[in-house]
Automatic annotation (TrEMBL):
InterPro entries according to UniProt: AB_hydrolase_fold, AXE1_dom, CE7
Protein name (Swiss-Prot/TrEMBL): Cephalosporin-C deacetylase
Pfam family, one: AXE1
Sequence ranges assigned to domain Acetyl xylan esterase in this UniProt record: 9-332
Domain of life: Bacteria
Amino acid sequence: MWQSDSVPRFDLPLEELREYRPALTAPADFDGFWATTLDEAAARATPTVLTRADGPLAGFEVSDVTFSGFAGQPVKAWFITPASPSRDEVQRPCVVQFIGYGGGRGLPVENIAWAAAGHALLVMDTRGQGSVWGTGGDTPDDAPSGPAAPGFVTRGIDDPSTYYYRRVFTDAVRAVAVARELPGVDAARVAVQGGSQGGGIALAVAGLSGAGLAAHPLTAVMADVPFLSHFERAVGMTSTDPYNEVVRYLSVHRTRTERVFETLAYFDGMNFAARATAPAYFSVALLDPICPPSTVFASYNHYSGPKQIEVYPFDEHVGGGPLQWWRQAEWFAGLLAG
């Protein structure tokens, strides 16, 4: 009988991955840091603006959304629902989708699968990103940063208060809060989903919700080949970006290693996973050179809520591709029917 452990790999065997639980790194003030951050963002929130976005998509209602994220700063999103029944006629579950590294919200047609499955969909733009693949982003990131390697992973990395992902994760928590208030959304049935960076963002939101730092619990968390997990191992074992941005930074700023990893501990997917309680569906690819399998299992094995993981032995960072979405959609439908 074929065994998945027969696949050549650069990481641990699958049976060891399933037991891999590195020590958590959350600082003592982890929850306080995030509570203060989210409270400040909520206090500076401004009304969400929806503008109808006309276009060639038949069967969907699309709105251009501007909502307030970190520090009240404007963040763009797409809100997409089936056109029939209209938003005024039915309350739908909503999936809040986060984008992979380097991409922006693009055009509505790039992310319509969840709406095609009958759900409401909010696609959050990732601040400052959108110029590597897809058709662009529309949200600037104007925060000051000290010296950084090209990319986003080392922006503001000398201090958790200035780190780039503090702003992104706060945007994401705010996006979920905004989604609950959108027309036609059932506020009691909101899920988060994303792949790679998007999966890491989804885990952060799950942890912040599970720790009681967001207003309401999530219905589901879907994290595919998540980035931003178990930084110490990821930075040490892969030579590919985005993790290698940290390597390049530390190869120049040689005295800042301890400080960098102290900052990253506030943003590590493992530490969020340990606080998450919503049902979760992960995926991992055993040949993934970008988000190594052990870093994914580090978060999965620490995840505190009900969970399952789909393993793709022969895939790299695609992590199951359209098949994984199909499985997710069936899983989510079963969860809603349950």
